């Protein structure tokens, strides 16, 4: 086995994580059904409940604030409820006792129907209050880690500033040793750990918490693959909030990307969306669905069974994308189709997309020497110009390396073979590009929002996603650095900005950007 442990930090990350685990559950097969191409042991751990029943629960650690878990409890149908606090108190104290209980959150209708074995009602942004409202899996009690020091959406003590997350980690780690208490039990269950993937908000205090967690983890695990999916809030917002978020993002990019094997920023709301995507930007249930679709499809090759076409590993992807350099930040682009649209395209027209999608390229009008220009959803966050300087968003884009993960028949087998053969040519020119294609489509289940328009209700999605190291990554980091230079305090400014500039230089080594910097 090549296990992967998933760490989730904060509300947006746990919305993404809930979609992820719901999707993984659908890949299980039972009885006489054909064996799933997904190796469930990668992301799920075997165990036993209190009554000896065999269980299979996610290899996950879920961190969130007080009040953020909704109706999710550490106890569930697999692991029984703890003894009643009043009864315990009565046994330990002979005098009068008063038990103070906070008002319990009412279980959503969706969860009630699941518990009763009934078909659940249709969800909507109005009925999804917490990420636990659409959760379909059981977690081990050790997976649930509630941080009581801060409360969700508190106006008195908001969990917003990067340094706040650092301070919280330091105080908790000093008291408990978080890695020993939380992570080590999951590590000890792994036979051959493939990677640790961390899903976190990067533009609030969770970025600081994650950076400290990753730093401690590096001390313990050395060169183990550690992927970080940095989630950033898109869309318009008040200027003071935007400045705070850019300052947090600058710290996250600087601190996390220097320690992570791969750092992939994902926006909650791309600047431009194709007309077939109908996203409610104010609903975490909606925005996390788009992020999850990109993340889950990109990492699909890492959990396929041995012998499956398109199988890969986190380490292999890192080697491809770094391309003998130190490029640890990657850009993610995606296209989505109804699988019926792909029928007949793979033979002769696999490289083309319908005009409905080609008309939208998220502002990437420059030259792109890969298929990124054909993907109409750009998940890389955009940084607003807060300095008044003239930006340059139309520079030609050079791709160093790229991994394409295709779900559905986007290309013929011959095209896939030709792409991968060219990538292995040590003397070849141009970017290193590898393609992995699987027939396993993304399942649109009742917990997943119907945000992709089609003539009918979509049950499966064909997804074309690419993860690339490109010069546009450096352009975005430079934009963040310019703003950070004007808003970060003088004590931190020099080291932070110098670090960001150093990151940018990794995307220019061996590439003369000046000759390709003119507008088309």
TrEMBL record:
Residue stretches making up the Misato Segment II tubulin-like domain: 2-116
Subcellular location field: Mitochondrion
Annotated CDD domains: misato (cd06060)
UniProt entry keywords in alphabetical sequence: Mitochondrion
Domain DML1/Misato tubulin: 120-304
Highest taxon, organism lineage: Eukaryota
Pfam families from the UniProt entry: Misat_Tub_SegII (PF10644), Tubulin_3 (PF14881)
Coiled-coil segments: none
Cellular component terms per the entry's GO annotation: mitochondrion
Gene Ontology terms: biological process: mitochondrion organization
Function: Involved in the partitioning of the mitochondrial organelle and mitochondrial DNA (mtDNA) inheritance.
Similarity annotation: Belongs to the misato family.
PANTHER family, sorted: MITOCHONDRIAL DISTRIBUTION REGULATOR MISATO, PROTEIN MISATO HOMOLOG 1
Name of this chain's protein: Tubulin nucleotide-binding domain-like protein
Naturally occurring in which organism (per UniProt): Aureobasidium pullulans EXF-150
UniProt lineage: Eukaryota, Fungi, Dikarya, Ascomycota, Pezizomycotina
């Amino acid at each position: 086995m090549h296990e992967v442990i998933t760490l989730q930090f904060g509300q947006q990350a746990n919305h993404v994580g809930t979609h992820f685990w719901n999707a993984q559950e659908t890949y299980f097969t039972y009885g006489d059904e054909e064996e799933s191409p997904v190796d469930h042991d990668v992301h799920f751990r075997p165990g036993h409940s209190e009554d000896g029943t065999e269980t299979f629960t996610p290899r996950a650690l879920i961190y969130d604030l007080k009040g953020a878990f909704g109706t999710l409890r550490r106890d569930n149908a697999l692991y029984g409820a703890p003894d009643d606090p009043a009864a315990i108190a009565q046994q330990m104290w002979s005098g009068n006792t008063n038990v103070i209980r906070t008002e319990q959150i009412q279980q959503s209708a969706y969860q009630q129907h699941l518990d009763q074995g009934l078909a659940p009602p249709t969800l909507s942004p109005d009925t999804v209050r917490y990420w636990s409202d659409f959760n379909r899996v059981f977690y081990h009690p050790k997976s649930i880690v509630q941080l009581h020091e801060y409360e969700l959406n508190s106006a008195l003590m908001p969990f917003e500033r990067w340094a706040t997350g650092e301070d919280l980690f330091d105080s908790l780690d000093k008291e408990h040793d978080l890695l020993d208490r939380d992570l080590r039990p999951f590590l000890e269950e792994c036979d051959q750990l493939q990677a640790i993937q961390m899903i976190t908000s990067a533009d609030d205090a969770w970025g600081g918490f994650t950076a400290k967690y990753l730093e401690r983890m590096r001390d313990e695990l050395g060169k183990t693959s550690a992927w970080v999916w940095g989630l950033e809030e898109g869309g318009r917002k008040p200027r003071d909030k935007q400045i705070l978020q850019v300052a947090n993002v600058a710290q996250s990019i600087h601190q996390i990307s220097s320690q992570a094997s791969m750092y992939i920023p994902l926006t909650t709301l791309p600047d431009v969306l194709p007309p077939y995507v109908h996203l409610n930007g104010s609903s975490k249930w909606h925005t996390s669905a788009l992020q999850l679709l990109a993340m889950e499809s990109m990492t699909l090759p890492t959990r396929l069974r041995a012998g499956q076409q398109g199988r890969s590993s986190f380490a292999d992807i890192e080697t491809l994308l770094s391309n003998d350099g130190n490029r640890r930040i990657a850009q993610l682009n995606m296209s989505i189709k109804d699988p019926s649209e792909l029928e007949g395209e793979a033979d002769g027209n696999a490289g083309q997309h319908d005009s409905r999608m080609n008309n939208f390229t998220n502002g990437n009008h420059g030259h792109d020497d890969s298929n990124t220009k054909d993907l109409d959803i750009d998940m890389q966050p955009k940084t607003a110009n807060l300095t008044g300087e003239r930006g340059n968003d139309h520079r030609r884009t050079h791709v160093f390396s790229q991994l394409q993960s295709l779900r559905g028949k986007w290309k013929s087998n011959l095209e896939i073979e030709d792409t991968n053969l060219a990538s292995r040519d040590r003397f070849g020119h141009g970017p290193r590009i590898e393609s992995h294609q699987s027939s396993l489509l993304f399942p649109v289940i009742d917990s997943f929002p119907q945000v992709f328009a089609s003539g009918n209700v979509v049950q499966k999605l064909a997804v074309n996603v690419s993860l690339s190291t490109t010069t546009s990554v450096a352009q975005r980091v430079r934009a963040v650095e310019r703003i950070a230079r004007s808003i970060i305090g003088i004590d931190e400014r020099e080291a932070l900005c110098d670090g960001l500039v150093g990151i940018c230089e990794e995307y220019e080594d061996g590439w003369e950007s000046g000759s390709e910097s003119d507008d088309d």
